[in-house]
Design a protein that fits this description.
Layout: H1 2-15, E1 21-31, H2 36-39, H3 45-58, E2 67-69, E3 75-78, H4 83-90, E4 98-107, E5 115-124, E6 129-134, E7 181-185, E8 204-209, H5 219-234, E9 238-242, E10 247-250, E11 256-260, E12 266-273, H6 280-284, H7 287-305
Parallel strand pairs: 1-2, 2-4, 3-4, 7-8, 8-9
Antiparallel strand pairs: 1-12, 4-5, 5-6, 9-10, 10-11
Length: about 300
């Protein structure tokens, strides 16, 4: 009976809750469908960036967008060190709009690199770098080698000899023309309770990812489904840009409003839903589960004490 009541209540809530839209915010999500074998090959990186730029400008209505969004590591270059490349990329969006793209970020700005980051970076029409976010949940052996000093002979899976450095944690970026956004790169979206800055709650989540490693297996579908859970838990819309899919738009109730299927190239212009007030999980996190377990244990104890016939 409890399960039936919960199902019915959820169905009614979805039926009577329309998706409200933020005025004058249109996001262009680009899914290039670049195979992993072609993503890092010498001579193909420039072609891949050119493809993303062409997809971005080829769709009518370019002047109406607030931002174009590219997937994780869509730009495998150090944008901080290449102003001409930033200008080339920024020209893909109209004046007043932004390009938000996955990229490799390096420090320091000049000389030999000491640290690299798997990042999301925002560039305006004039090629100015406005903000960046660094991935903080890194994949062991994929992006860094744990205990590197003990295992110098082990290489990470991703290209390059240098390990990625973890960012400081969830952040909310304030970008011109957009509501405050909480970026998440790749599998950062799978961690419940660890996707937003609690001290500065965003109004939407942005998941940039590259699931091409997993081909047409269940991995990309599972990743997309888990992203839906985070939208529901946080009461926030979630926009997803994936290299080979699945890209799309999820409203704060978890409803999929738009998607580009796995293994396809495509561009979608997406409105941005309005965020909800923080739901119970966003307020109390896993304490809710502990409270439910305590209540269940108490009820079980009471039932066990009932006299038996």
């Amino acid at each position: 009976m409890v399960a039936v009541a919960l199902f019915a209540g959820g169905a009614i809530r979805l039926a009577v809750s329309p998706t409200e839209i933020v005025p004058r915010v249109l996001l262009r999500v680009v899914q290039p469908d670049i195979a992993e074998t072609m993503k890092w090959q010498p001579g193909t990186r420039e072609q891949n960036v050119a493809l993303l730029r062409q997809l971005t400008i080829a769709v009518p209505g370019n002047a109406d967008i607030a931002a174009a969004i590219w997937p994780e590591t869509a730009v495998p270059f150090l944008l901080e060190r290449q102003p001409k490349l930033r200008s080339y990329l920024g020209a893909a969006v109209p004046p007043g709009a932004l390009l938000i793209t996955g990229a490799i970020r390096g420090e320091p700005l000049e000389g030999d690199l000491q640290r690299i980051y798997n990042s999301a970076e925002a560039v305006d029409h004039d090629g100015n770098l406005l903000a960046s976010y660094d991935k903080f949940h890194l994949v062991p052996l994929g992006e860094y080698v744990p205990l590197r000093g003990l295992f110098p002979f082990i290489n990470k899976v991703t290209p390059g000899e240098m390990d990625f450095t973890a960012g400081p944690g969830p952040r909310t970026l304030a970008l011109p023309g957009l509501p405050p956004v909480g970026p998440l790169i790749c599998y950062e979206v799978i961690f419940p309770g660890h996707v937003v800055d609690r001290a500065n709650r965003p109004q939407w989540l942005l998941n940039l990812t590259n699931d091409a490693w997993f081909g047409s297996s269940s991995g990309p579908y599972q990743h997309f489904a888990i992203a839906r859970l985070r939208a529901v838990e946080e009461g926030l819309p979630l926009v997803r840009a994936a290299n080979t899919g699945i890209s799309g738009l999820i409203d704060p109730y978890g409803r999929v409003l738009e998607r580009i299927e796995l293994g396809r190239s495509g561009v979608r212009d997406l409105p941005l839903p309005v965020a909800l007030d923080p739901p119970l999980y966003a307020r109390f996190g896993d304490w809710m589960l502990l409270a439910q377990l305590a209540i269940a244990a108490a009820l079980a104890g009471l039932l066990a004490r009932q006299p038996q016939d």
